[in-house]
Amino acid sequence: MEPGALLVARLWTADEIASLCYGHYRNQLPKQGLPDPSREWTLMAAFIQVETTALEESVTKKVVAMGTGTKCVGQSKVRKTGDILQDSHAEITAKRSFQRYLLHQLSLATSGSQESVFSTATDAGKWMIKPEFSFVFFTSHTPCGDASIIPMISHEDQLFPTLVSDVCVDPSAADISASGISAYKRKANEEEASGTSKRLKQDDETSLNGARLSDDGRTANGKALEARDVYRTGAKCVPGEPQDSHKPGADYHCLGALRVKPGRGDRSWSMSCSDKMARWNILGCQGALLMHCLQRPVYLAGVVVGKCPYSQEAMDRALNTRCQKVASLPDGFRTHRVDIVQSSLLFHHGRDALKEKGDAGKLVPCGSAVSWSAVPHQALDVTANGYRQGTTKKAIGSPQSRSRICKAELFGSFRQIVQRLPSSQLPDSLRDQELKTYWDYKKAAATYQEAWNQLLQQAFTSWIRTPRDYLQFT
Ligand SMILES: [Zn+2]
């Protein structure tokens, strides 16, 4: 079977999901926190809830969580109180907004509401997503890291190479871009001299005029085109893994490696979005805390990517293939292979759309991040540098400075829900236990931790984790 091939018919199309998200972005998010399109771009990601009636006669789709953002804070800025948002890439702000949505849904369910997406499961104190609901993830751009290492195959790309394809642009990534372009030109000149360029050009023209290219860079007759270069990621390989060669051309990066995002100023503890999304395929999107109350993890029914440089092979490698061999997972967990599709619709506040319009040299990534969740109170949250927008240095640490999706806030919401429950309704993992800190609660989610350990041992051995003393807050 082809990678990404479908086992069941989709209840949605990629363009339908993308346009639903773009509409939500235009109509539901206020200007505050969004880019000034004359000089800034951003990334956007969202979770779409798909609901079917019993016989699939009708399907309704709605956005339940959305995030924007392009930045990540460095290690030196992280506090031990869990009140800073470390990773504000859109995929991650969307995922944390989705967890906020799920917490609200759990609070509805535990209060006896039938309106919740959860219903009681067979195990005591556990809940499950009702069978009529599923979730699709949208991202306006390929996730940073492994999925953004994309072979350049078309004629146009070779004439105007934009070498860093993802959001991980930091001062050193800018160097990569500059040196990459000069290396590219040097290589092209060498090839011109040796005559190989002429052959490649002919190949390109054949492919453009004679046959339409498919997603993976093959012509219609199945002939593979050799990529001369790759789009690059600014995320760096983690120590202990194979490292990038930085050789000019297509071998610049090593493939399949775990990567860490550059922070502002110093290194971050945040793994690339490709790595984090691969983890969702084993551990689900709900996180450790919610797993206490769920019988099974929440896996995605699909991932849709907006129009941008894209490779089906790179997406499948980064998100699916790297963890496919992980075995011995605890009950309820599995190696989920997510269905990945690209939309033909461009995000109007993304880098590619704005580059087409104006002066590409002037464009910078937008510094603020927006979170939106389908919850009744204070659905919106705008942050910059990991804190609520407008926070002064002096106000850091105050309740007003916190994002509603930071660790401390999500932990607080979770504790409120479980503390309200009589002990007969608590799951075993939360009963008769002396749990105090965030770390205690996460560690006590036994099946989640067991699955995570299997994933770490079998596939992601060099994963960088936030040190434990940064997770001991109450
Ligand atoms: Zn990212």
TrEMBL record:
Where are the stretches annotated Disordered? 186-219
> What Enzyme Commission number(s) apply to this enzyme?
3.5.4.34
| Class in the EC hierarchy, top level | hydrolase
What PROSITE patterns would the database entry show? A_DEAMIN_EDITASE
Position of the signal peptide: none
Biological processes annotated in GO: tRNA processing
Gene Ontology MF term list = metal ion binding; RNA binding; tRNA-specific adenosine-37 deaminase activity
Membrane-spanning regions, if any?
A: none
Q: Which cofactor does it need?
A: 1D-myo-inositol hexakisphosphate
Stretches assigned to the A to I editase domain: 65-473
Record key words, sorted: Hydrolase, Metal-binding, tRNA processing, Zinc
Protein's UniProt keywords contain S-adenosyl-L-methionine: no
Swiss-Prot/TrEMBL catalytic activity: adenosine(37) in tRNA(Ala) + H2O + H(+) = inosine(37) in tRNA(Ala) + NH4(+)
| InterPro entries linked to this entry | A_deamin (IPR002466)
Known role:
Specifically deaminates adenosine-37 to inosine in tRNA-Ala.
* PANTHER family in the record: TRNA-SPECIFIC ADENOSINE DEAMINASE 1
Protein family per UniProt: Belongs to the ADAT1 family.
Q: What is this protein called?
A: tRNA-specific adenosine deaminase 1
Origin species: Leptobrachium leishanense
Encoding gene (name): ADAT1
